[in-house]
Design a protein that fits this description.
521 residues; mainly alpha; globular
Length: 521
């Protein structure tokens, strides 16, 4: 009887895993299909953050993808032949050190200063440190965007340690987050591929070559640090599911709490992690697994309580944040920018006299009007979401230059070429192929592991990516919002590329082996 219950629970987990596999395979097939024939880029003027359609050559993409795969196969073959005694952990450490050095160098070489919301948060941190709380008044920036107070608090800590207004210290902190991302992703890959050396090598080389990862280092915002902490959290969950440790649990709890403090959208990762834990509990209840879920919620709750404890008593009762429905409604606004930021939420809230109920009602009316339009004209709905999806998920540079385009002073010659020279074009072309390799690699891995991966934890980061995709459909759009999910795909994409290379290598060897040498019977 107990065995029957266990079998049923395992089948239930396998069923849910199969359903997710179908959803993920469909999503990545769509991403790959679109990325093979088109792309979107920022225009020549990087002050314009919007992206523009660029026709792409299918034959050119196929050719350069094949060249990239051939290069990857050569590297892996040589490493397999001559590097068999080299510790992969040492390779990982070396790559992390290289990435850290490049990231630290880029902070000074690019010499960029905060712009837009980054600048506002830096000013806000300085004002709060000086005792100026005017931004918490009704309608002021901190009152409208209270979800940013966690990152403001982190900036305040850096200002106290390194001097008021020293945003450069945060940029160097972001540089340190790059090796954290790489090392955590390697740890995740080691678990899901059971230590495949070649898959790890593909991943480490991929991360070295991920250009936007370095270009986002000077970004004085929560993208890199929250992504790094989310990757650490995923790694700790996988390790604890294999062998529980209170040290790992503490790391998970702290990392998740800080990640959501730095960037509230990291809640999507947290939800994905909790779904994995809940499904595992259905399959087989273990107190250690339940404790993981409690740790995630405790970390997030502690972070929120800390922020509320600091600013709650200082915020007037009549100060209310922007209703979230306004972001959803803005995500349905059309024109040249399908669902992109257009200041709609600010103008509606301002015209409502900072009344969240009145503003929220307007948001609901505008959202209902859009849904009605979609019901009456399905072709328009398909076209709108086709454009919205592509301007978020088919932009290989992920606004990495546009979001960091304000130079604080002279830049290095290399940085100038990246921003305004021919090198920018080459990087955009490379990342176009890179994105294809990642999307194709994930899709191939899903196809290969369809029958082997019957437990949900193998898909832990892809579940978060799928949640991010759903969120991007309904929320205000920018391609930089997608970048953390792209980073989360790379371990799977690298493993998929290696799986594809193994298949190609076997076919090549089989073909050569089957040939009869000339002159022999």
């Amino acid at each position: 009887m107990a065995e029957t219950v266990k079998s049923r629970r395992e089948r239930f987990e396998a069923l849910l895993t199969g359903i997710f596999w179908l959803l993920a395979a469909g999503m990545f097939a769509m991403f790959l299909y679109y990325s093979m024939g088109m792309t979107w880029e920022n225009g020549p003027d990087l002050a314009d953050e919007f992206v523009y359609f660029k026709p792409d050559s299918l034959l050119n993409n196929v050719w350069w993808t094949a060249v990239s795969l051939a290069a990857a196969l050569t590297i892996c073959t040589l490493f397999k032949k001559y590097g068999s005694r080299i510790s992969m952990d040492m390779v990982s450490a070396a790559v992390c050190l290289l990435a850290l050095s490049a990231s630290i160098w880029w902070v000074g070489a690019s010499n960029t200063s905060p712009q837009s919301d980054q600048y506002k948060l830096c000013i806000l941190a300085s004002e709060f440190e000086a005792g100026d709380l005017s931004s918490l008044q009704p309608g002021a920036y901190a009152a409208r965007h209270s979800h940013q107070l966690g990152l403001v608090t982190i900036l305040r800590i850096f200002y106290r340690l390194f001097g008021d207004g020293n945003y450069r210290s945060f940029q160097y902190f972001s540089a340190w987050m790059v090796p954290v991302i790489i090392f955590s992703g390697d740890g995740i890959l080691k678990v899901i591929t059971k230590g495949s050396r070649q898959a790890r090598l593909c991943y480490l080389v991929s991360m070295v070559l991920c250009v936007p990862l370095y270009l986002y280092v000077p970004f004085v915002y929560g993208e890199l640090c929250s992504t790094a902490l989310a990757m650490v959290s995923a790694w700790m969950i996988l390790e604890c599911l294999t062998r529980f440790s209170w040290i790992r649990w503490l790391v998970l709890t702290g990392a998740m709490g800080l990640a959501v403090m730095a960037r509230q959208n990291t809640l999507i990762f947290a939800i994905g992690f909790l779904l994995v834990i809940i499904i595992k509990l259905f399959g087989r209840f273990k107190w250690q697994t339940a404790v993981l879920g409690l740790g995630i919620m405790a970390g997030i709750g502690a972070g929120r309580l800390a922020v509320h404890g600091i600013y709650g008593p200082l915020t007037p009762a009549e100060s209310k944040p922007l209703p979230y429905i306004l972001y959803v409604a803005m995500g349905t606004m059309d024109g040249d920018r399908p669902g992109w930021y257009n200041d709609y939420h600010q103008s509606v809230y301002r015209s409502s006299g900072w009344d969240p109920k009145k503003a929220g009602d307007q948001g609901y009316r505008d959202l209902q009007a859009f849904l009605e339009q979609c019901r009456n004209d399905p072709d328009y709905a398909i076209d709108f979401y086709y454009r919205k999806i592509n301007t978020q998920w088919n932009v290989p540079m992920y606004q990495s230059l546009a979001m960091n385009s304000q130079a604080a002073g002279p830049q290095s010659r290399l940085a100038e070429k990246v921003y305004t020279g021919r090198l920018r074009h080459w990087l955009e072309q490379w990342m176009n192929i890179y994105q294809i390799l990642v999307y194709g690699g994930v899709l191939f891995l899903l196809a290969e592991k369809r029958r082997q991966w019957t437990t949900i934890e193998n898909y832990i980061l892809l579940i978060c990516v799928f949640g991010g995709f759903l969120f991007s459909l309904m929320w205000e759009a920018k391609t930089r919002y997608v970048f953390p999910y792209f980073i989360a795909m790379i371990p799977y994409g690298a493993a998929g590329v290696w799986a594809l290379l193994e298949v190609l290598d076997r076919k090549i060897r089989k073909t050569h082996k089957g040939k009869i040498p000339h002159g022999r019977a």
